[in-house]
Amino acid sequence: MKKLIGSSIVAIAAALSFSGSASAADVQSAKPVVQEAQSPWQIRVRALGVVPRDKGHVNQIHGSDLDFSSTVIPELDITYYFTNNIAAELILGTTYSSIDGQGTLHAAGAGKLGKTWILPPTLTLQYHFTNFGAFKPYIGGGVNYTIFYNEDADHNSAGVGLKDLDIDNTWGGALQVGFDYMLDQHWGFNFDVKKLYLRPDFDGKLNAATAGALKMDEHISGKAKLDPWLIGAGVTYRF
Fold first, then answer.
1. Chain segment 148-177, per-residue pLDDT in tens
2. Domain locations in the chain?
3. Per CATH, which fold does 40-238 belong to?
4. CB proximity list for 35: less than 8 A, separation 6 or greater
5. What is the C-alpha to C-alpha distance for residues 122 and 19, in angstroms, rounded to an integer?
6. In this predicted structure, what is the pLDDT of residue 174?
7. Which of 17, 41, 45, 129 has its CA 20 to 30 A from that of 69?
């Protein structure tokens, strides 16, 4: 009888011990897995193609038109995520463009009119889609303020063209679509397209030869309808 009671006590103790271990394992396995919180900050470095619309006119010259050169530049953007879906992006970069006369201007010999540097900081508010895994598309819209600096009038060997050129800084709208493809939590590839609505006013002074050929005063003014496409591809880093 004593042996039977002793055996029963040992069996009960073993069962309680096993039950305690199982309960501890269950509690451990029930603990939530805590993932590292992502920073709201992100940067991208892109090669950016700036492709303006070749359109514009000089007010005093009927049939005049303008042509602007396209460029490829390095560009940096900084993004801040307010939520997983809503973010703001600021792009920073500067580019160079030459301005050629077309239409009546070209016929009068005013081919090359000038050149300018352009600084077009653009701020957009974006919506990011988050249900496609590593593929993260987004759309956005915002504002642009473009600064024109180091404007330089140009003329050919015959002295035909501009003596002075001044382009007004201007505000414009911006639309955007793009995507990131994330390789891990921090690194990814990016492709982005923006359309800027940019139409600055300008004024200048024609060389005497051009003004004489057009039978007009040397002072001119007009509007450059740039409306460029910004097409970029590069690397994304999420902090």
1. 999 998 755 455 578 889 999 999 999 999
2. 1-34, 40-238
3. Porin (2.40.160)
4. none
5. 64
6. 98
7. 45
